[in-house]
Amino acid sequence: MMTALQTEAHPDGVGIVQRQYLTWTEALPLESGQRLGPLTIAFETYGRLNQARSNAILLLHALSGDAHAAGRHSPADRKPGWWDSMVGPGRPFDTSRYFVICSNVIGGCMGSTGPASRDPRTGQPYGARFPVVTIGDMVRAQTRLIDALGIEQLLAVAGGSMGGFQALEWATAYPGRVGGALLLATSARSAAQTIAWNSIGRRAIMSDPRWRGGDYYGHEPPSDGLAVARMIGHVTYLSEISLEEKFGRRLQGAREPAFSLEREFAIESYLDYQGASFNARFDANSYLYITKAMDYWDLPARYGSLEAAMARVQARTLLISFTSDWLYPTAESRAIADALTRQGRPVEHVELPSTAGHDAFLVDEAAQRPIITAFLDELATTLL
Amino acid sequence: MMTALQTEAHPDGVGIVQRQYLTWTEALPLESGQRLGPLTIAFETYGRLNQARSNAILLLHALSGDAHAAGRHSPADRKPGWWDSMVGPGRPFDTSRYFVICSNVIGGCMGSTGPASRDPRTGQPYGARFPVVTIGDMVRAQTRLIDALGIEQLLAVAGGSMGGFQALEWATAYPGRVGGALLLATSARSAAQTIAWNSIGRRAIMSDPRWRGGDYYGHEPPSDGLAVARMIGHVTYLSEISLEEKFGRRLQGAREPAFSLEREFAIESYLDYQGASFNARFDANSYLYITKAMDYWDLPARYGSLEAAMARVQARTLLISFTSDWLYPTAESRAIADALTRQGRPVEHVELPSTAGHDAFLVDEAAQRPIITAFLDELATTLL
């Protein structure tokens, strides 16, 4: 175990990193017609921007992610950033060659402006008065960050799940600013089933009496509701096979059933732990806003069809999907790849065999490493 | 619509039926070692028991079902029993030939002894002091009813989902008493994913402050928790295809997104309606107890292996599974059929193409009718 930890840490990884912030007093216009300001974006960078400002890669995080993609904030940190194994010298997002950026989405709770931020109209946290944001709004906010960093064109954008939504948004809304798009386990629209799961999670949060209409800051948060929402999420991130392999019908710390209503199976303890640890790091209101942004995600509707949307893409595109992912099934990636191909756009789609379900994009790293490295190599050859 | 209703109603169906009750003062020994008494079983019967007492078919209901399988309790009833289209003169469970019985499971809330019943020790409702029951306990209670009706051998037992668990329990625990077993969309054990969904539903109910440790009778019930549990269930009963076909990304009563946290997609309204209507007819504590009984369901563990369990079966078995059912995938039925075949037992497994998901066993009636009719015909030829 220690060996593995040491391999992940400095000097092999990006080492100690710092979260940075940029704030704009000018409000950001939102898709709803509302405006959000002042606007703060929390971000981290790894590696160095080259003189031509052509080697920047923007990483885009999923529902529960944040700007902390790699390294540690202090040597005492137990865990590195969420995509650490992929970011660093010699890793696919090779910080000896690329300038890697990751920012927290607006509506989030990890430093960027979100429902826990101070509403300038009241001086109090926004709560449920925070405006509903969309994937388009998240990416429009990111363009301010990229502008501020003096970057005209990103070498690549990359993300899985909701991170893939944002990468697709970049590639279609700002086609001239994206050299390559790396889309993992994602989709061009949220399906009815995704909306259903998100909606049930929101219902669990909003019916927790401690939600208090969103104004729970300074009080106990709606931790039961958020736990239920997260537990639902976790089952959708795994596959039936992986649940059987990891947990099966094993009892947690017992050989015989307790004949009680309390949790006793290992899968129940796992879910309970996931619910509790998520509460320790995530704000329930952000869960409401970010899942709502996901539900609104519908690129074909925006441009009339998936074909029309993909016709806008100028980037080279790499899609990776996973056989056991039932939340964003591989067919969704295939549909995007097929539409790009019909539009004559350079695209590669790799379907990786996996039992890990949707989580595969984060946990099946070994299989993705050579594919992502080769894709970025080719981009770098052309664009650096 | 009126034509369809008239076809279902008397004289084509079983007409007006009455719920009946039997009560035993002698306690029922339970798998946990506890005892449950007095014991009441609510049941209904359709058709007539023949002189040889050889034409009885026991229908077994799923999680949210009850003893009211067919007909109407009064002419004003809006809906007939849950399996009405399959029960009646000329229907597969042909009441001109068979004596059809259906009872409410113990732990339920539709007339049989359950957590809302009076605990003789306290004079108050059991609440969470109700003993945990298993599928084996439910079926052992049913043997009392079948004994009381003077029936030695059932022509057949039939059920889908948790009803299939009970049918399998009958066929393995009381092999000499079952002529045929009809198993729809079911499994010999609850998989980790099933336990996960059930456990999250229980967590939602038990963390609703109105649950009050189970003692909410006479107060407002934990309707938010039960709604969330039911909404989760409903998504697992449908398929991704059926959700797309029925709801897709359609907004409910609007053309443009409202940019609000409230529900606005049609799928959200549907789930909300399901949650509310379930609250109107179901007791949250029964949901806890019945899902727990499902989680404990593990026939291979009881007898050492699926083979050993199936070696006990003397009944002819018909399994029907549905291609889009991901809660009880068709592979589970195939495993049961294969094990029976290897044991030299007469078994037929029909996998029906369907987009309806797990719900197919209740809604795809047309495809099942001829198969079930033929199966029962053959049983009747041998056993009547």
Brief digest:
By secondary structure, chain A is α/β, with parallel strands linked by helices. Chain A has two domains: 274 residues, Alpha/Beta hydrolase fold, catalytic domain (Rossmann fold, 3-Layer(aba) Sandwich); 83 residues, Rna Polymerase Sigma Factor, Chain: A. Chain A is 38% helix and 13% strand.
What do these coordinates show?
The structure is a homodimer of 384-residue chains. By secondary structure, the first copy, chain A, is an alpha/beta fold. Chain A folds into two domains: 274 residues, Alpha/Beta hydrolase fold, catalytic domain (Rossmann fold, 3-Layer(aba) Sandwich); 83 residues, Rna Polymerase Sigma Factor, Chain: A (Orthogonal Bundle), CATH 1.10.1740. The first copy, chain A, is 38% helix and 13% strand. In chain A, the strands form two sheets. In chain A, strands 1-4-6-5-7-8-9-10 form an eight-stranded mixed β-sheet, sandwiched between helices. Chain A has a two-stranded antiparallel ribbon with strand order 2-3. The longest helix of chain A is centred in the C-terminal third of the chain and has 19 residues. The first copy, chain A, is globular, with a radius of gyration of 21 Å. The two termini of chain A are 38 Å apart. The N terminus of chain A is likely disordered. Chains A and B meet through helix 4, helix 5, helix 6, helix 7 and helix 8 of A and helix 4, helix 5, helix 6, helix 7 and helix 8 of B.
